[in-house]
């Protein structure tokens, strides 16, 4: 079974000629019709067509949409940058190499989420203690950046690095406008300048950009 990450399922639906909907429901692009909730899908690559009573994983979806073989479906997914599909098509040596890359992606994903969550928590704490002095627009920008970052970091890329830099920059400006005490200033400075964050951003910026069709 091919497990997708984050917005990869929506990207797959678009690549197959469909239109992603809201809350995982859309019209069925496989069998036509105008009902906006006939087709259901999840972020981990599962789908179900209520009109035909069919469903499955990402491979099944490609096979159904394109009327192709399983191998051709895997090749289609591999071209979209789905690592699991690439693994299924490779030799043992090549699979080991790709598995190593996949483990690296998983590690970057976890580190990015952990740092972004810590940054947001610090911002929320500061906002709670200085409600009348905080910059509300910056606060909302940080929240939006975190939401976008959660989705992008599921498939780490240079775009993820840009989002993290943007969130960090907004947080830096947010903290600079608050009357923090010396202890809080020290904690904020460490959070914003810790050596591991520079290494993380560098590693994200070196990840290959996602393939486009």
Describe this structure in words.
- The chain is mainly α and 213 residues long.
- The protein has two domains: 8-89, DNA Primase, Chain A (Alpha-Beta Complex), CATH 3.90.580; 99-205, Four Helix Bundle (Hemerythrin (Met), subunit A) (Up-down Bundle).
- The protein has helices at residues 8-15, 58-66, 70-79, 83-89, 92-129, 136-152, 158-176, 182-193, 195-205; strands at 25-26, 39-41, 47-49, 54-56.
- Strands 1-2-3-4 form a four-stranded antiparallel sheet, with helices on one face.
- Strand 2 and strand 3 (47-49) form a beta hairpin.
- Helix 6 runs antiparallel to helix 7.
- The two termini are 23 Å apart.
- The model has no long low-confidence stretch (mean pLDDT 88).
Please mark out the parts with pLDDT under 50 across 5 or more consecutive residues, or reply none. none
Largest sheet: 4 strands, antiparallel
> Percentage of helical residues?
55-70%
Strand content: 5-15%
Mean pLDDT: 88
Number of domains: 2
Structural class: mainly alpha
Q: Which sequence of SSEs, written as H and E, runs from N to C?
A: HEEEEHHHHHHHH
| Cα gyration radius (Å) | 21 Å
Number of helices: 9
Alpha-carbon distance between the two ends: 23 Å
Give the tally of β-strands. 4
Shape: flat
Tell me the name of the CATH class of the largest domain: Mainly Alpha
What is the CATH architecture annotation of the largest domain? Answer: Up-down Bundle
CATH fold-level name of the largest domain: Four Helix Bundle (Hemerythrin (Met), subunit A)
